[in-house]
Write a structure and sequence with these properties.
Elements: H1 14-57, E1 77-92, E2 126-129, E3 136-145, E4 148-152, E5 156-162, E6 168-173, E7 177-182, E8 186-192, E9 197-203, E10 211-217
Parallel strand pairs: 1-5, 4-10
Antiparallel strand pairs: 1-3, 2-3, 5-8, 6-7, 6-9, 9-10
Bound molecules: copper (II) ion (CU).
Copper (II) ion is lined by residues 84, 142, 166, 169, 203, 205-206, 210.
Length: 222
């Protein structure tokens, strides 16, 4: 049996030793129990606080945003700007010469010869220029941009034809009229798209590829 020394260096009896040991054990147990209760309380408090905050940040039924379905533009006024353009495939009968200002490893242009018997349609819309002194030649195709337009039956349609490329054009809009358009000019036509179907617009100088269509969608019965 062990004995302890008190402050006065006196021996403490074994009975007192047991009392001290029991007190220490009881103290440890009490600490453990209190700690667990404290943790449970903290967890409960955290959960209540968290879910309380979560709940308060949830939108209530009264302020939930109602998303609207996006529908096509319902205006009955449709305005378009139609450019006269041409695309050019420029090339050369000689292979390309190394370009000092081009990025490294830029492939050299291959030598290209104009077709011997071109199968392109007649009418002025396509043009092949013969190689010049430097061997350069061009394949040109005329067009309208845009060439497809969609409107609804009953719309008031305004078309602005813009002479951007090509010296001059003679344009017909089916059922509307014919007019000449030179580079730098703008010619405007307006009409009501009364009937569903297709309205063609063409340039007589650059047939057949300089052409476009206005698709008039039928009115919905809904
Ligand atoms: Cu034209």
């Amino acid at each position: 049996m062990y004995n302890f020394l008190d402050m006065n260096n006196k021996k403490v009896s074994s009975k007192h030793t047991w009392l001290i040991a029991l007190t220490v054990v009881a103290g440890i147990l009490a600490t453990v129990v209190l700690t667990q209760i404290s943790e449970q309380t903290l967890q409960k408090t955290f959960a209540e606080n968290y879910f309380s905050k979560t709940t308060t940040t949830m939108p209530s039924t009264s302020n939930v945003t109602t998303f609207k379905t996006i529908v096509p533009n319902q205006t009955t006024n449709k305005e378009f700007w139609i450019n006269t353009v041409h695309f050019d495939g420029m090339t050369n009968i000689n292979a390309g010469i190394k370009c000092d200002t081009c990025p490294q490893n830029t492939p050299l242009h291959p030598a290209e010869q104009p077709p011997v018997n071109p199968t392109i349609p007649t009418g002025g819309g396509f043009k092949i220029t013969e190689p010049n002194k430097a061997g350069a030649w061009d394949f040109r195709s005329f067009a309208f941009a845009p060439a497809q337009i969609v409107v609804n039956q009953g719309d008031k349609v305004t078309l602005h034809f813009i002479g951007v490329q090509g010296a001059h054009h003679v344009i017909t809009v089916d059922g509307i009229g014919t007019f000449e358009l030179k580079r730098g000019q703008i010619n405007t036509v307006s009409f009501i798209a009364n009937n569903p179907g297709i309205i063609n617009y063409v340039c007589h100088v650059h047939a057949p590829n300089m052409a476009g269509q206005i698709m008039v969608l039928p009115q919905s019965n809904v």
